[in-house]
Amino acid sequence: MTVNAARRAWLTDLPVLLVAVVWGSSYFAAKDVTTTRTVLAVLVLRFAVVLPVLVVTGWRKLRALEGAQIRGAGVLGLILAGIFLLETYGVVHTSATNAGLIISLTMIFTPLAESRLTGTRPSRSFVAAAGLSVLGVLLLTQGAGFSAPSLGDLLMLGAAVARTVHVLAMSRMRSVQGADALSMTTVQLGSAVVVFALLSTAPGTGSTPWTAAADFDAGDWLGLLYLSAFCTLFAFFVQMWAVRRTSPSRVSLLLGTEPVWAAVVGIALAGDRPGWLGLLGTLLVLAGTAWGRSAAAPRQTSVVEPAEPDGADPGLEAAGRA
Predict the structure, then answer these.
(1) What is the b/e burial string over 229-261, where b = at least 16 CB atoms within 10 angstroms of the residue's CB?
(2) Is 48 exposed, middle or buried (0-12, 13-18, 19+ CB in 10 A)?
(3) DSSP-derived secondary structure letter, 261
(4) Which of 51, 206, 242, 260 is geometrically suited to a Cys-Cys bond with 37, CB 3.0 to 4.6 A?
(5) Which of 84, 107, 125, 87 lies closest to 255, judged by CA?
(6) Using CA atoms, how far apart are residues 189 and 191, in angstroms rounded to an integer?
(7) Whole-angstrom Cα distance, residue 246 to residue 167?
(8) Is 183 within 8 Å of 65 (Cβ atoms)?
(9) pLDDT 10s digits, 161-182
(10) Name one Pfam family in it (predicted).
């Protein structure tokens, strides 16, 4: 890669890495505000808080979306709803340690699924880098203790698969190519909050959003706003923006550092002590991510500068194949 190409790659990678930091902290925030009876209520509130802001700020481009683009974003929103349902119920029913380990399997599922779809094989260096990262996650979680598989573990495994589907769908669905990213995010979140609202009205699904909101104290609201503004809006806007400028595998590998940041937040705020195995695992995940970035970089040479939001992005399909 040239110096300018390497600089552009870093400008794309750094926001994605920040998303991993935010998502890593989300386990601590979600556990603080969510119980088994308030999962759907918290999800409704988490999404609904940002939707009015999104609609007002992006109204002109939102109205300009074509029917096919709205339908495509709606499909992505259904996948997104599934991700959050699986993750939130999973975190409630398992430990943050197990959740961080299992969700990191996304960085393995994505290149494997991508290679299956494109009929190509990921490079040996990329596979080795991903394996090193997974080994690091294993050591990280073993440092804090790994319990037997539970319902929550299976839900988190499903969430890892759903994340892979979401990343690949964003890069390969022709109906969303060239659409304004913020408008597409708005439709996705709107679709998801409708799903959560409908489910929350069903009997036996726990507290309603209004009941949960009335019981929140100031700390709960701060945690909810953090989940809404940073872990939801910022994270998925960056993911949709980045996947158009690099490969889904590269995005997933960077997001695969999420367990490391979860451990950092746990140590700093929750007083967790992962031990020397956990610290070694942290170093291996970071090393594997850096190696994976280098291994994926030569395959980005066909990705051109992004097109204007209202036009077709000629680099998107190339990025999806990389």
Answers:
(1) bbbbbbbbbbbbbbbbbbbbbbbbbbbbbbbbb
(2) middle
(3) H
(4) 206
(5) 107
(6) 5
(7) 12
(8) yes
(9) 999 999 899 888 888 877 888 8
(10) EamA
Q: Dig out the tokens for 258 from the structure.
A: 């999420």
Residue ranges in 229-313 assigned as alpha helix (H): 235-243, 248-255, 258-265, 275-296
For residue 3, the one-letter residue type is V
What does pTM read for this prediction? 0.75
CA distance 155 to 11: 34
For 295-317, write each residue's pLDDT tens digit. Answer: 765 444 333 333 222 232 322 22
Using alpha carbons, list the distances in angstroms from residue 288 to 73, 142, 253. 33, 18, 9
Pair 101, 259: CB distance under 8 Å: yes
134 Cβ contact partners less than 8 Å away, ≥ 6 residues apart: 104, 105, 107, 108, 288
Give the domain ranges of the chain. 3-321
Find the length of the chain: 322
| Sequence-separated (6 or more) residues with CB below 8 Å from residue 303 | 245, 246, 315, 318, 319, 322
How many C-beta atoms surround the C-beta of residue 144 within 10 A?
Answer: 22
